[in-house]
Amino acid sequence: MKPVYINSLGSISCQKTFDNSSFLDEIISYEDHIILAVDPNYKDYISPANSRRMAKGVKMGVVASKIALNEANLETVDAIITGTGMGCLKDSEKFLSAIINNDEQFLTPTSFIQSTHNTVGGQIALGLQCKGYNFTYVHASISFESAVLDAKLMLENNEANTILVGGVDEIEDYTCSLHKLVNHIKKEKVNSTDLLRSKTEGAVFSEGANFFVLSNLKQESSYAQIVEIRTYNTLGNTSITDTASAFLKENNLNTEVIDLLILGNNGDVRYDGFYNELSAGIFKNTQQVYYKHLCGEFNTASSFGVWLASKILKTQKLPEQVKLNNIQPSNYKTVLLYNQYRGENHSFTLLRRC
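RESULT FIELD:
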């Protein structure tokens, strides 16, 4: 089977990541329990007429994909695969509110049409005039991993040469109010630098879009190779330590060859124990970083983790603001990412320097 490479990327997040010429040179800190993505100048990528009709999630996805395609010097791709946990929330809420306010009568279909989860993938395809494979995965907090796995299988089996893969989610007020009721979002405002010291229930919610051009053809500008990706809905009676060890063993690796461990800690005192078990256990002698204090928590936040890993592997630089410890390897060659949300949908992604 052919290897799979990340040839380019585009990111819109709570940091100014839409500029690929820099790498977290300027960190924006927040003190809140809900944070919004930093908007690029959408007019540079989307005509004002089209932009007005797009929800924020669609605009973020379209622009992030264009940034990735521009960096790869591509006009189009063979396939587009998107992951999203909640889809276009704004239009969904707008349509449901109209049902209630209009007593289920005289409804216009526009918001309903634009609220479907595959709107982002469809808009990207329309802009590129891409008539190839177009699929959207809605698998909660492993939606992005499912999209990457699909693309990886296609590329390994030579069913395509270039695939645009991304994860995108937006936030809206009403949905956030529901998450607050069940303590999924922290009740108190938390400074991003103190996220892991909050010791309270819930996470700091956010939004973002991260897109990647994956290919089985390596380029000089390639960021990393995707070696393996594995998801687990639940662990049952198996510990996360045993699961991680088994994953590495299946890839003929051990903890000593992992140069960097990227963890998805979000400050939720009930579930960060999964990360703490690895960081204090079998990976205690490994350089560790985290990232959700920069991007917040959302269903496809792990795509920001892949963005971070890709940038580190290519630049061989590790920003101080993401470090969990001060163990310094000689270089970054093999990176392992681990993510879970509320004790479910665990995922391991193994990346290697090109």
